[in-house]
Write a structure and sequence with these properties.
By secondary structure, the protein is an alpha/beta fold. It is built from 27 helices and 29 strands. Strands 1, 2, 3, 4, 5, 6, 17 and 18 form an 8-stranded mixed β-sheet that branches. Strands 22-23-25-24-26-27-28-29 form an 8-stranded mixed β-sheet, sandwiched between helices. β5 and β6 form a beta hairpin. The N and C termini lie far apart (73 Å). The structure holds 3-acetylpyridine adenine dinucleotide (N01). 3-acetylpyridine adenine dinucleotide binds next to α5. The site of 3-acetylpyridine adenine dinucleotide has 26 residues, from α5.
Length: 867
């Protein structure tokens, strides 16, 4: 029972946790001259390194990097003894830091915070501690760690065992002696993998109960890496700066080698180098695409499995130790010292729980369907309620009395992983939605602490008392975090990153996977934009610049960065011939798009001459005729050809199950308006007339196009309606040009910086049509008669200057009763949805297009629907 609150204290800030983050937070708050107290339920500093004292516990980020960087003198005074320090050494280091800066005087050990309540009147938090103290404070900072709340053993009979029970995460300070004992270890995550070889040295028999085989590579521990020491020696500041602006918080050169295209020799060389190096970020950097492309990931995974098979002598045990049910890196990979070798010892046995599950823990040991095992000790290395566990366990109730646990019942929601709406002045260090566990924690911790300290300093200067994110900013960040996750393989794994290890926990990627550098950039921008997305209040009133810091899909942003880095001249400054050459050059280096059943080229004889076409037939059964889709490529009526949109056509063919006929039409400036539109109409007529020869189903014909191709596709529909057919079952218009009015809001917002610019659109129009022709419905179909057009799917991309005209066309079609599906390409540009195999986040939009096409043919619209 908690003691009644008795002593009252007023403080500026309360920090919970005296690990890496809490200690540095205390240091920074003191620097600001704030009164602060740190509480920790442990008996000393150290956080996770206080509790996790199991044999073999070490860091798995090199000590050159797993260290504070805020104090250059400290760096001079402390020398790590190894590449990966042991838990006792890391604990010594944290004690040394605490003593060096006299931090202990503001830390209350063996004291937990039992509740925190926001007092709206006073604009302060009321904190109560397990020792009966009540504290009023302005700021409440949770430095509670990402892996601090052990997962309760969810195994039948866990409380019944009469022998010794140990948890790796709560190891006794006096240690454990397993000499001569029969020991069980349950769990093969980092804690299990580090402790098993050492427990095996003492135990007379060691039985490891493995549910999921885990990827691990040898740590090759020893002296700190010479190359890193050299770089640090030469330029410490430069090294630390590079770490802060790296993807993972360690300065490494990200590779651009793709696993899927690299030669066997390159693959092997890169993998062996990473294996020999024994660093986490090295093995995660064998290929640039291993985190997103299953085929590339499989190459690394299989090479690790080969290593396991070569180390473990018993083939059955080796096979059981080979991870096969998740992609490499989607569960936290481990670094080990002799882990797989341990299974070659005669007294060590592996029990594969997938084949032989635990029925129950008994008084004597562990019972499985095949065998009852007797033990003297059971070690649970079963992990943590990660990232959110410690935050929701602390009884925090915010503005409306809502607890964090209630607010996060369906998953955590944060702004930048730092704060959450409804909880003013509560800061989380390395909270969900920040890079945290996917990075070198010490770098991420320092960044968070520095951000919070800077924020409090700014508040003081600007005379604000409270700060809290807006719900718009928060939901925008949550979306961005999930967008970043969605393009990776992480969501496929049952990992603690996904909350999947705790029964009933919402399944969501908890950390931010966009990278330490991208994250730091976002945090900095929030500040430079006047604390965008935060509401700050004080005696002089409130200030809030509401907004979302990242609305663009992460892979679209990457493409834009790459394009910017290439320094290509703006297309609108080139001649048509040079622009075409540039487009062909970029098309030549992109992935080819999916395999389809058959691709054939031909020509369409139209009055103006022959139009080349390329036909794509789906690979999948059933045999026989298919619906037909006539597709027109993009390129502002000036650029493009059958090759330019080839990957997209393959994708459309595969997704729709239709035969796609991509038609090349005459281009401007050689053939100006209305040549392209007339060609499109003639092509549609010809495909309809030759449906059987093309392998199509007569009468089942749709049109599709992107950009200017969408323009002529819909013009062809208008002409077909007026000039005697053919019947068109539907039209798919991807980011269409439907008007020549360049004053819409989307032009103003997106007319610069997103590849298709206002200048380029003007260049296209100037090449294609005289100003006098630009309101002609065959140039600007929005101004045409829309009655009786076929069911329509329009894709409108957020960052496209043409977005608003696409939306206007959808609305106008709806107004005359045309069934319309408006697919919003959230976070996309004019070009990104079409970048098959490059922009992964475009896939759901293209899936929607595929569904729309299938739907055109599955359900014949009724006359009323069309009218
Ligand atoms: O925990 P884990 P951990 N029945 O969750 C198994 C960091 N860390 O303490 O995978 C049977 O990874 C579970 O099986 P499954 C590091 O970030 C760092 O080892 O859920 N088995 C898994 O095998 C790490 O990732 C360092 O199917 C059960 C294991 O227990 C994180 O902490 C050292 C089970 C738990 O593995 C957590 O590591 C240590 C059940 N009911 C930790 N429940 C370094 O710096 C769970 N398991 C090196």
């Amino acid at each position: 029972m908690n003691k009644p609150a008795s002593v009252r204290e007023q403080l500026d800030a309360v920090v919970v946790g005296a690990g890496f983050s809490g200690l540095y937070m205390l240091y920074r708050l003191r620097q600001l001259g704030l009164s602060v107290k740190v509480f920790d339920s442990a008996g000393d500093v150290g956080g996770t390194w206080y509790w996790n004292r199991y044999p073999g516990a070490r860091c798995d980020i090199p000590t050159t990097d797993y260290t504070y960087s805020f104090d250059p003198e400290l760096e001079k005074e402390w020398t790590w003894s190894e590449k990966y320090a042991t838990q006792p050494e890391i604990l010594d280091y944290l004690r040394f830091v605490a003593d060096r800066h006299g931090l202990r005087s503001d830390i209350e050990f063996s004291t937990s915070v039992t509740s925190a309540r926001w007092d709206e009147q006073e604009k302060r938090w009321r904190i109560t501690t397990g020792r009966g103290k009540e504290i009023r404070c302005r700021y409440y900072i949770m430095a509670t760690g990402c892996l601090s709340i052990p997962k309760p053993p969810d195994i039948e009979g866990a409380g019944r065992f009469a022998g010794q029970v140990y948890f790796t995460s709560r190891w006794p300070h006096e240690g454990a002696d397993f000499t001569g004992q029969r020991v069980a270890v349950i769990g093969t995550g980092s804690s299990g993998i580090q402790s098993i070889p050492l427990i095996a040295r003492q135990a007379s028999r060691l039985t490891v109960f493995q549910r999921t085989a885990n990827f691990s590579i040898p740590a090759h521990n020893g002296p700190a890496p010479a190359d890193r020491l050299k770089r640090l020696g030469e330029d410490r500041d430069g090294y630390r700066h590079a770490a802060r602006w790296s993807r993972g918080g360690i300065p490494i050169e990200p590779t651009d080698v793709l696993g899927v295209t690299a030669s066997e020799a390159v693959r092997r060389e890169r993998f062996e180098a990473a294996w020999a190096q024994g660093e986490l970020f090295g093995i995660l950097n064998v290929f640039a695409d291993q985190g997103v492309n299953p085929a590339s990931n499989d190459i690394v995974a299989e090479m690790i499995r080969e290593k396991i098979r070569s180390i473990v002598k018993d083939p059955g045990t080796a096979e059981a130790l080979c991870p096969k049910d998740h992609y490499f890196g989607t569960k936290r990979p481990c670094l080990d010292t002799g882990y797989f070798e341990t299974y070659n010892l005669p007294h060590v046995l592996l029990v594969d729980l997938r084949k032989q599950p635990i029925i129950s823990i008994t008084e004597e040991g562990i019972e499985t369907p095949d065998e009852s095992f007797g033990f003297d000790a059971i070690v649970y290395a079963t992990g943590f309620d990660a990232m959110t566990g410690a935050l929701v366990a602390a009884d925090v109730a915010g503005r409306d009395g809502l607890s964090l646990k209630e607010k996060w019942a369906t998953g955590p929601s944060t702004y930048l992983g730092l704060m959450t709406a409804g909880f003013p002045n509560v800061f989380m260090l390395t909270g969900p939605g920040s890079p945290s566990v996917l990075s070198n924690m010490t770098v991420s911790i320092e960044q968070h602490v520095d951000w919070v300290a800077g924020c409090l300093e700014d508040m003081r200067e600007e005379r604000f008392e409270t700060i809290e994110p807006t719900s718009l900013a928060e939901s925008g960040w949550d979306q961005h975090v999930q967008d970043c996750a969605a393009i990776t393989l992480h969501p496929t794994a049952n990992s603690w990153y996904m909350g999947a290890n705790v029964p009933g926990k919402p399944r969501v990627l908890l950390p931010y996977i966009g990278g330490v550098n991208a994250y730091r950039q976002a945090c900095d921008e929030v500040v430079s934009q006047g604390y965008l997305g935060f509401r700050r209040t004080g005696p002089e009133g409130a200030r809030c610049r509401d907004g979302v810091i990242r609305r663009m899909q992460p892979d679209v942003a990457m493409v834009l960065d790459l394009v910017a880095a290439m320094g290509m001249p703006p297309m609108d400054t080139l001649s048509a011939a040079d622009a075409r050459a540039l487009m062909a050059a970029t098309a030549a280096i992109r992935p080819p798009g999916p395999e389809v059943g058959e691709v054939t080229d031909g020509v369409i004889p139209v009055p103006a001459g022959d139009l080349p076409y390329r036909l794509y037939r789906p690979a999948v059964p059933p045999e026989g005729p298919r619906p037909l889709v006539v597709y027109f490529h993009g390129g502002g009526w000036v650029l493009g050809n059958l090759d330019s949109d080839d990957p997209l056509c393959r994708d459309l063919c595969q997704r729709s199950g239709a035969v796609v006929v991509s038609v090349n039409y005459r281009h401007a400036p050689e053939a100006r308006f209305p040549a392209a539109a007339l060609d499109a109409f003639a092509a549609v007529q010809w495909v309809d007339a030759n449906a059987i020869e093309l392998g199509g189903i007569p009468g089942q014909l749709a049109v599709a196009g992107w950009s200017a191709g969408a323009n002529i596709a819909t013009v062809a529909c208008q002409l077909a309606r007026d000039d005697g057919g053919p019947h068109i079952s539907g039209q798919v218009l991807i980011c269409p040009v439907v008007d020549s009015d360049m004053t819409r809001l989307s032009y103003q917002k997106n007319g610069d910086g997103y590849i298709l610019t206002t200048a380029l659109m003007r260049w296209f129009w100037d090449h294609y049509a005289d100003p006098a022709d630009r309101a002609d419905p065959r140039a600007a179909p929005l101004h045409g008669n829309l009655d009786g057009l076929p069911p329509t799917c329009i894709v409108a991309a957020d960052f496209d200057p043409l977005r608003d005209e696409g939306v206007a066309y959808a609305r106008a079609l709806e107004d005359v009763g045309v069934p319309v599906r408006l697919a919003r390409a959230r976070g996309h540009t004019h070009t990104s949805v079409t970048m098959v195999g490059v922009v992964i986040s475009g896939a759901p939009v293209r899936a929607e297009i595929g569904a729309a096409l299938r739907n055109f043919f599955a359900v014949r619209p009724t006359t009323e629907q069309i009218e």
